[in-house]
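Hi team, as promised in this morning's meeting, here are the two structures we talked about. I've kept the exact order from the run log so nobody has to guess. The first one is mostly here for context; it's the second one we should focus on when we meet again. Sequence first, then the predicted structure tokens.
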Amino acid sequence: MFAWTFVVLLVVPSSWAERGPSVSEVLEKANANIVHRVGQPILIEGDIAIDTDAERNADPCTSYGCMWGKWSDGFVYIPYYIANHYSDRERSIIIRGLESFSSVSCIRFRPTISTDTDWLSIESQDGCWSYVGRRGGKQVLSLDRNGCIYHNTVQHELLHALGFNHEQTRSDRDNYIRVLLENVISGMEHNFRKINTLNQGTPYDYGSVMQYFRTAFSKNGQPTMIPIPDPNVELGNAPEMSSNDIKRLNTLYKC
């Protein structure tokens, strides 16, 4: 068991979170023209990384344990490395996103050390994306310097790495949103597949930082998702994790 020294940072109040574009607007713009290159993952649902086409039809977490382990002190320590190509300002936004989890949960992101076998490597690759859950070894989480450095986007990708999927893919989503596949870009229909998610006893959350906005993957500017029964409910504009996001995180990791 290693002993680590932690620097306690002030948690920035919610009102200080940048009220920039919604997460899904950021992801759609940043990931729109990515060309798949050898050695890079395939992206589904906009920003979820998979290694092979075989993973498209099943959440990789369903076939093995993908949660990060809890230590005897009750905390979940997740090592991370931030690539040195970020500016001081970009790095501070990323670190603030990492530290935001410690004030609301038992998750503790800490800088990696030489003996770590599993860690997140936060890098500016093409676009914003993450794998779902713990993969083992060096696990890249991409936050492209060109368009991905926002507080809500950092939290969104970190929640993927912790094992969470998008809100609109929840198993019960048909009770809360109507998906209009006729407005979806041809070939992108798979982004609206439902997953047998663990909803942690929480309601569908239109204000989740994991919820995409209503015209995501639209081919004609028309909605691809409409809330029901009230079509006017605000959708996908969270500046940061919602109370339900936090509750699910604490339930999953038994914080």
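And here is the second protein, the one for discussion:
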Amino acid sequence: MLSRMAAGGLLASAPAAAFGQVPESPGPEPDDNPTSVAISRQVFDQISAPVTINGQGPLSFMVDTGANVSCVSQALADRLDLPRGRDLQVHTIVGRRSRPSVLVERLDIGERKRRHVQAPVLPMQAFAIDGVLGIDWLKGQRLVMGFAGSTLEITRSRHEDSARGRVVVPARRKSGQLTIVDADLNGRDISAMIDSGSQFSLGNGALRRLIERQDPTARSRATKVGLISIAGESFQGEQLYLPFMRLGGLNLGNVPVVFADMPVFRLWNLHETPTIMLGIDLLTQFETVAVDFGRSAVRFDIADA
């Protein structure tokens, strides 16, 4: 068995909220300054950015475009003695769990600051990180992950056009958080989510059935893998390779995808739509990936124009 690690997107809801509903976080202030910080590649291939909490740091937080809330590790909550908040229902890639939360007076990344943040607490023992930086601090903003230069930028939303070596594709939001771009597999439409918090790309059952209809021999080439979520939950999957996939104006070949029975696709109402979560293994093949939450667009810079 090939043993690998996976970190998946998170949804957090208050106890009184309906299943799958996410309490709105405050949007960015009008005078939020653009910022740029260095990112690092850590063990298990997540990307991490330096963060300070209540003036203490730098701390290593994984950048996760599949998470709509920022979270902290249990070890960090204990070390900083963060005050306890209310329990929250946290939806990991595996399912729903009740988790404690802590109250963060101030969370900074570069020049940007957030105050009065309620953050779920997750175990994270298998990941050498202090927390997860979700998209709750990116409303209406533009996140630029510069993999070639190991930089992360947060800027104001702006219009961009495709050019040589650069492809801009329209995106849409789902469940208040997901950034989805249209793609196709051998001419059949599929949905592709941008998930920088997953070590590798993940697919749902509908996508696997589509692959096996197009290639009945695909099942015989599946490789079993062991996975673990950011909350420490173990589960099983099987890896297949997509021979060809179009993503916007990009043509990708031999794309590795891990398939598992993950309730999170049903939570997002994507269980009947062939869907792939584009993990860091695929995203880092580009020089830059810019996710514009204000204009609902994603820019891919190709390493070899």
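Starting points for discussion:
Confidence is low (pLDDT under 50) at residues 1-7, 11-31.
The radius of gyration is 18 Å.
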